[in-house]
Amino acid sequence: MKIRALAIFVTNFDKSRIDYYVQRLNEIKDEKIWTKRIALPPTPKDLPLDKITELLPNSRDVIFSAIHLRSNDKRVKDISNILQTSKSLYASILLSKVEDSKEIANFIYSLEPEIATRIAVLIYDDFLLTPYFPVGSANTIADSLAISVLYAKDYLEGKINKSIAEANEFGIKYSKQLQLRYLGIDISLSPWMNESVAEIIENKSGKLFSHGNTYAVFQINREIFNIAWQLKVTPIGFSETMLPIAEDLILMKRVEEGSLKLPNLQQLTFACVAGLDMVPIPRDKDLYYNILLDSIAIQFNKRRPYGIRIIPTTGSGYIFINDYGKIPEIKTI
């Protein structure tokens, strides 16, 4: 088990407070903590985006979910330029109105691949409180702390109870140490390369994509929620199975061989969050628009937060991104 993210939610744009929390995070030396993060609140309408970057200190060890705009905000077009100033910056766009889908599809189409990995579209009623970036925002009333966990390997070994219980102890420990309100854990089951969520699904229901996969994801979600309830752990944010293509070696293999295609993946999102997460898809404005429309319909029926990260590509079959390596494009039909 690793703490995938130790995240502090800072509820205002006070530079001295942000500096203080970055300093405190830098002081923490714990091999179980993979990433340290700070999330800022939804971006005020009167705050220029370039002013936000002036509030953030340079820190090699801390990343920032710093920009959170509604889909009808005219500043959306400026997000890409701001994110080019630092690889530590992340941003989200809240898509709550169908009529904004065309503009957001055009915006995704315009993105360079690396920048696209740091921008997510959230389909929901409001901004989301989660340690998972880019969508994680400090949409709360007081400075707080929460964590997410990397435990796919432990799940396969039957150690899920131990992992979540231990992670919760970490969260409580560091919330006391930092004197922050403890929110709980986003208990989402997420992969990182060899620690594959796809392997877990296939163990339950057969190779991706096959009939029964969706029910397997549903079973996993129900299981982790029941365990959290038994352990008296507070689940926050997404708290569902995650299938980011570029972060799971088996998912990438299934995409490469053609057994997992875009329609299959979108079907799985009925049971898992961010099913269209970190997915390389050839540049096509109309396709992106229709993906957003279908995702809005799925979210409306799920009544759960739904995140999307599309990586625009050239249609050459693969794309290379430094932090992820070679990623196959998903076939759309």
TrEMBL record:
Organism whose genome encodes this protein: Sulfurisphaera javensis
Family matches, as Pfam families: DUF711
SUPFAM superfamilies found in the cross-reference section: PFL-like glycyl radical enzymes (SSF51998)
Domain of life (superkingdom): Archaea
Descriptive protein name: DUF711 family protein
InterPro entries for the chain: UCP027893, UPF0210
Signal peptide (UniProt feature, chain positions): none
